[in-house]
Amino acid sequence: MAFPSAPSTLWSVSLLTVLFAAAVHGNIIDDDDPMQPVTSDETVSVGGTVTLTCRVAESDNSSLQWSNTAQQTLYFGEKRALRDNRIQLHFSSSVELSIDIGEVQLSDEGEYTCSLFTMPVRTARATVTVLGVPGKPQISGFENAVPAGGTVTLTCTSTGSKPAASLRWYKGNQELEGHTELVESVPDELTSNVSSKLTLEVSRGDNNDLITCAVVHPSLAPGDKRSEQALRVLYSPDVQILPESHLPREGEKFCLQCLGNGNPEPAEYKWDKKDEVLPPQAKVDGAHLCFESLNKSDNGVYLCYADNGIGNSQGEFTLLVQG
User: What range(s) does the Ig-like domain occupy (predicted)?
Assistant: First the structure.
């Protein structure tokens, strides 16, 4: 009888060892094998629940087993192996083993293994990806009002995202461009903090416009997390003079009101008559100018000056007293 040489025998044993190890680690998968376990990768947000399902098309009543990323057995058939109340049996039969992992943490991310204990052992892997849910964005830079024609720099920050979230800016419903974004990793927590800076040139028409910072992340539905604040723009007043009546009659009482539309509201008003002094019977009370008894000598152009500390403006009204 002929015996194989020692090198040949060693080579054969080594080959068998490699093939067995590969099969156990799921590197050899026969798609036509009805007893080959099938799993799927799953994605879940921190705090959520993920269901891991392992199925085979046929079974010889061998037990299915789920193991975690550290190769600790979680469930062997219907039997719990690891004392972790977050892990519960979802469903078990001869061809399926499904388990739930609740209150998922970032540390739960990784590759889980389903094994069917036949000879050889058949395995399949499922990768669980855990998303770190970003915090509600916080906006700074609105502390002080901005004079019209000036610029304001706003900063939006959001913490705790995995992968790193992105931030978007809106003015009303219009998305704003030109912002810069910074991502800072937090290694101990496996998450990232993101911030975005936006510089705007403002005009008086921007006063009270809503500026929104929104977080975009796969763990969130569109619009889930956003913050908004109103712009405060300072501008000098526009002045308008409103008459008490459009038919001022001789001998009647008549008043004019000066309206100064500015931010802030005007704190000081001044009345004058163009090219003349105010009639002695004209009484000034802040934004009001009143005549107790109109006279045709009161005809003329009256001026009102309004000052709000940012600037001043004037309005005018032509008074024609009817006989």
Answer: 34-129, 137-232, 237-318
Name, in order, each residue with C-beta under 8 angstroms of 93's C-beta and a sequence gap of 6 or more.
Answer: none
Is residue 1 in a domain? no
pTM of the model: 0.76
Does residue 90 have a pLDDT over 80? yes
Distance CA 295, CA 248 (A): 10
Q: Number of C-alpha atoms within 13 angstroms, CB side, residue 134?
A: 32
Closest to 145 measured CA to CA, from 311, 310, 269, 312: 310
Distance between CA atoms of 215 and 222, rounded to whole angstroms?
Answer: 8
The rounded distance, in Å, linking the Cα atoms of 193 and 168 is 15
25 and 79 together in one domain: yes
The helix (run of H) or strand (run of E) holding residue 13 is helix 6-24
Domain count, the chain: 3
Return mean pLDDT, the chain: 90
Q: How far apart are CA 194 and CA 166, in angstroms?
A: 7
Q: Indicate if 164 and 248 belong to the same structural domain.
A: no
Contact 108, 43 (CB under 8 A): no
- 322 contacts 248 by C-beta, under 8 angstroms: yes
Helix, strand, or coil (residue 1): coil
Residue where a domain stops, chosen among 99, 131, 163: 131
**Residue 147 is part of a domain; what is its CATH number?**
2.60.40.10
3-class SS of residue 79: strand
